[in-house]
Design a protein that fits this description.
The protein folds into two domains: 198 residues, no CATH class; 131 residues, Heat Shock Protein 90 (2-Layer Sandwich), CATH 3.30.565.10. It is built from 13 helices and seven strands. β1 and β2 form a beta hairpin. The longest helix is centred in the middle third of the chain and has 77 residues. The two termini are 26 Å apart. 32% of the residues are buried.
């Protein structure tokens, strides 16, 4: 593990990580600032245009109220998307049915000016996009439907006002209808595209979390295997020895039982540390665990194997130095796996040599014995080496395991080390 045990990730938290992201409170402050900005620009333009028109007092008040509601709905567009869109739709309906204002046209008679053409009406396009982005695919049809119905109401009113965009009243009507529908559809498509991108980001975050949890579980599985395999090998060896000498040498049998008890306690401590990430926050906080093992515990590891009856020698070449947690744990597991294999398969008379060679840029480790070597018929014999190769790959290390030319078995690893400061 790169930096000690990961924090616990309960299954419920994993399953709901994406929902917590989606259901988090929306930024009311950001939307409020957007509403203010639109009111100061688009709203100011509408106010300026309104002041240049001849309009009755009642119509003026109705339009001003609709414009205020329309701009205010922007502030709630993500926190309360459906009520905000309903308010904006009601405001647009009021603006669409208001009588036309009169505008000066120079020497000619005053022209009819639909209040729907004032710039604030563009805010409704933003509200369509906002609801389309917030709702599910089926419910997102609501803003599209409302917008197109509004187009069906607004286009005839614009046509009746005498608006001349193209030669001929028919083509003007067609142009207005298509233009308004295009604005509505484009706004809806922008909203749906935003929703699709947000969902893609959420799924990517969920998959990233799932991969992290899977890696952590694989790491825990490897640690469990290492702890259990080594400890059980020592316990079985000592139990066999104790049973053999129980009658002839009770003192030796008692010593074997003490080693069994000590190994069992050590295994329980290691298992608590390994399984800590699977517990809840409360259980972890109430049950302190020991730090992960590393090369500082190699002597204890060697002594436990010696207690199992093997002749073990240890050699260190070069100057040891502190290692990152992931490398320190991987190096320890290499030695643990090698000694466990020797204890299980090398035979009672085998000799084992453990060597650590420190270089500036790498650490070489080896566990070699002159015994019979592991048997391929042993169930699960390759699981430890497979997990060890995965662990070393995580720290860019290599593992070699196989029979020695002169007899016996050797497991060796090469692990790159971080460059020391000043070198």
């Amino acid at each position: 593990m790169d930096s000690g045990p990961l924090q616990p990730v309960p299954a419920a938290a994993t399953a709901s990580a994406g929902r917590r992201h989606v259901d988090a409170p929306t930024p009311l402050v950001a939307d409020g600032l957007l509403a203010v900005a639109l009111a100061a620009t688009v709203g100011a333009l509408s106010w300026s245009g309104l002041s240049d028109l001849q309009i009755g007092t009642g119509v003026f008040d109705a339009y001003l109220g609709g414009m205020v509601v329309l701009h205010a709905s922007v502030a709630a567009r993500r926190r309360w998307p459906l009520p905000a869109f309903a308010a904006a739709s009601l405001a647009m309906a009021v603006i669409a049915v208001l009588p036309n204002a009169s505008g000066a046209t120079g020497a000619g008679p005053p022209a009819a000016v639909p209040l729907l053409l004032l710039p604030s009406s563009l805010v409704f396009a933003l509200m369509i996009a906002s609801l389309a982005a917030a709702e599910q695919a089926r419910r997102s049809l609501l803003p599209l439907t409302v917008g197109l119905v509004g187009v069906g109401v607004a286009a005839p009113r614009l046509h009746a006002s005498g608006l001349a965009v193209l030669p001929g009243a028919y083509w003007t009507f067609v142009f207005v209808l298509v233009a308004l529908a295009a604005v509505v559809v484009a706004s809806w498509l922008v909203g749906r595209l935003t929703a699709v991108r947000a969902r893609a980001r959420r799924l990517d975050a969920e998959h990233t979390l799932e991969r992290a949890v899977a890696r952590e579980r694989a790491e825990i599985a490897r640690d469990v295997h290492d702890v259990v395999a080594h400890s059980l090998a020592v316990i079985v060896r000592q139990a066999e020895a104790g049973a053999y000498v129980a009658q002839a040498n009770p003192a030796a049998a008692a010593t074997s039982l003490q080693v069994v008890a000590q190994t069992g306690r050590s295994a329980l401590t290691d298992m608590r540390t390994v399984l800590a990430p699977l517990r809840s926050d409360a259980s972890v906080g109430s049950a302190p665990t020991a730090p992960l093992p590393g090369l500082a515990q190699v002597e204890r590891l060697v002594e436990s194997v010696r207690a199992g009856g093997l002749d073990v020698t240890r050699e260190t070449v070069g100057t040891p130095r502190p290692l990152p947690t992931a490398i320190d744990l991987a190096a320890y597991r290499v030695l643990q796996e090698g000694l466990t294999n020797s204890l299980k398969h090398a035979g009672a008379q085998a000799r084992v040599h453990v060597c650590l060679r420190w270089h500036d840029d790498r650490l070489d480790l080896s566990v070699a014995d002159d015994g019979t070597g592991p048997s391929e018929s042993v169930p699960g014999a390759g699981l430890g080496l497979a997990g060890l190769r995965e662990r070393l790959a995580a720290v860019r290390g290599d593992l070699v395991a196989g029979p020695r030319p002169g007899g016996g078995f050797e497991l060796s690893a090469r692990i790159p080390l971080p460059v020391q400061a000043g070198r």
